[in-house]
Amino acid sequence: MVDAGVTCDVVVPCRDEAAALPLVLADVPAGLRVVVVDNGSTDGTADVARSLGAVVVHESRPGYGAAVHAGVEAAEAEYVAVIDGDDSMRLADLLPMLDAVRTEGVTMAVGRRRPVARGVWPWHARAGTLALATWIRRSSGFGIHDLAPMRVCRRQDLLDLDVRDRRFGYPLELMVKASRAGWTVREVDVDYRPRAAGTRSKVSGSVKGTARVVQDFAKVLR
Ligand SMILES: Nc1nc2c(ncn2[C@@H]2O[C@H](COP(=O)(O)OP(=O)(O)O)[C@@H](O)[C@H]2O)c(=O)[nH]1
Ligand SMILES: [Mg+2]
Predict the structure, then answer these.
(1) Which of 99-108, 137-146, 198-207, 208-217 has the lowest average pLDDT?
(2) Does the beta carbon of 205 sit less than 6 angstroms from any atom of ligand 1?
(3) Measured between alpha carbons, how far is residue 121 from residues 20, 62, 75, 191, 219 in Å?
(4) Would you identify the CATH topology of the domain 8-221?
(5) Which of 81, 88, 98, 200, by CA, is between 20 and 30 Å from 184?
(6) Does this entry carry the keyword Transferase (predicted)?
(7) What is the distance of C-alpha 22 from the center of its chain?
């Protein structure tokens, strides 16, 4: 049932983020409800999320896009947000983004990561992000400088866009389709902090991981 007090469901794709979730869920702003999507965690992520009051959704297919999509389908609020579950970004930074969508006529608000310390953002991930964001900016006309690591929009708008990628090309396909659909996008600065101690990057934390993202992105662009 839809809880009248919840304006925005926050989808948090999580693979082995049990150590980070107590930090992520320590301070959930009023009006937000967290939906943790677990696929294939082996560290008790789902149990930790549940014990901290989050809604937990299971998805059998592996992949970032599969997890995000399952969370968006399970969400019930009018607005939906997506954020990493590694404590590198803060739930509170979603609030001005939500405001832009709710009251300023923006179709989607996306985050632009601003590292709070040296070493937070590995060089290869940053270089890959810069190259792809530049490509998206030129081809879409969106004034963006990052790959929408955090985003907020109306849930139905996102479902209507029909993003199909289920791996790491998901954010890129989202931006390409949003541009074709005539969405307006606003980029908002967000803090980018070290991921929680005891957790490991699954996407861009290694050169290999970054290479996999670039490969998935190339498939979207073909
Ligand atoms: N459910 C699920 N979550 C994933 C998967 N891959 C990555 N994630 C989550 O997606 C978010 C982004 O991944 P992360 O490891 O932080 O990538 P990075 O920010 O590039 O280092 C994190 O919350 C991960 O736990 C996956 O296959 N399934
Ligand atoms: Mg992360």
Answers:
(1) 208-217
(2) yes
(3) 18, 24, 30, 12, 24
(4) Spore Coat Polysaccharide Biosynthesis Protein SpsA; Chain A (3.90.550)
(5) 88
(6) yes
(7) 18
> What is the side-by-side order of every strand in the sheet holding 8-14?
55-58, 32-38, 8-14, 79-82, 151-154, 108-115, 185-192
pLDDT at 76: 97
Question: Percent of the chain scored above 90 by pLDDT?
Answer: 81
Closest among 118, 124, 84 to 214, alpha carbons compared: 124
Q: Which two tokens stand for residue 18?
A: 């049990």
What ligand 1 atom has the least distance to the C-alpha of 202? 15
Query: β-strands 55-58, 32-38: how paired?
Result: parallel
Q: Is 40 in a helix, a strand, or coil?
A: coil
Minimal-distance CA residue to ligand 1 atom 21:
201
Digit-coded pLDDT (tens) for 24-56: 999 999 999 999 999 999 999 999 999 999 999
In the chain, where the domains are located: 8-221
- Whether 98 contacts 201, CB under 8 Å: no
Is the Cβ atom of 21 under 6 angstroms away from ligand 1? no
Instruction: State if residue 198 touches ligand 1 by the CB under 6 angstroms criterion.
Output: no
The residue contributing the CA closest to ligand 1 atom 6 is: 64
The residue contributing the CA closest to ligand 1 atom 25 is 14
End-to-end CA distance of the chain: 40
Nearest to 29 by CA among 74, 96, 75: 96
